[in-house]
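Input sequence (444 aa), recorded before submission:
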Amino acid sequence: MRKLELRNYDDWREYAKSGDRPHDIPYDPYNAYAEAGWSGWGDWLGTGAISSHLRKYRSFKEARAFVHGIGLKSATEWRAYCKSGKKPSDIPNTPYAVYANTGWSSWGDWFGTGSVYSREWRSFKKARAFVHSLGLKSEGEWREYCNSGRRPSDIPSNPSGAYAQSGWVGWGDWLGTRSRRGGWQHFKKARAFVRRLGLNSHAEWREYCQSDRKPNDIPAKPDRVYAQSGWIGWGDWLGTGGVATRLRKYLSFAKARALVHSLGLNSFAEWREYCKSGQKPKSIPAQPDRTYANTGWSGWGDWLGTQTIATRIRKYQSFTKARAFVRSLGLKSQTEWRKYVKSGKKPIDIPSAPNQVYAEAGWVGFGDWLGTGTVAPRWRQYRSFKQARAFARSLGLKSQMEWLDYTRSGKKPDDVPAYPGQTYARKGWVGLGDWLGTDTRSTR
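Predicted structure, token format:
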């Protein structure tokens, strides 16, 4: 993934849906690798960003002392400050969440505007009973109530923080709307109940959950609650017969291909129309290139029987010759390459996915493949940390925002990284203040 040089989650989502993602790279890596190495999108994409829950912050007293010195007066001013790029990375954007159990009491206390530093709240049970009497239906209504000025001073506006260790379960429990966490029915009993409802789709299930008719011990998100205790898919849950693709039983590749040959389809477009017609047996996958990727798949021509040379057994040009040919085309980006591949002009001995075919035979990146000079960060040769830092300090930049603006200006030398925290993580990096020479404290 790091070779793709995606910058954020939105870039990933667009790529994951584009059809370029290999079948053995999961759409939801945070679930697939939850227990096998996942530590955040910054680590996955190689941007160096760290998930909030993994970030190291200053102690509450140190952070509050710093904020007192800024002179902010309201949460609105705080949000604007957080967006300005001036805030040190070891001061959290959401102090009420980070310090919920280690000192947080109010915004007034955080800003030093004179609010009481500590407060005695009602017991959780008494506070919850009071809130139940209000008849509020959602977290949004709770926020409106808190902003109205009618909330008693001994009822916290942030109950999830105030009662985190003394009874807090969730907003449904706090407001009395019957939502809950835990205490669910056994999967089989819950599924049996849901099947009797006669719902036909995930959309109908959502409408049912919002109708207030759902029993309190049936989860609104069964795919999460029963993920490890019986969940197969929405078709199984609702009783419509649909089964998640990854669990569906298909014919062997040879049998499936033989059946498809008998249909007389002549192109991928005709295959798609056939899949949409409702005539395709459930034992034949709509995406055979993924289902049979490791069990026989060799190309659409082979699948449809149109005698196109099978991709798997095709003899490609050597990497050097193929790259020379591609560079002669004058393409400028990966997007232009994809358009060229789909145009029908590409020779059959030049692969559509050179990053896979030549992965162990010379591949560096699409910049090298197209001849645009762009090189993936992991292959790029940078200056030593001291040399690069000296250069950065000579620019006279004062903040992270100014550094980012500079890196986007086109003036930055190629051998100075745009993301020095990632490149020099174990080679001298201390923080952006040290990098720019401003001495602003930053998390290592």
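Checked by second reader. The chain has a mean pLDDT of 79.
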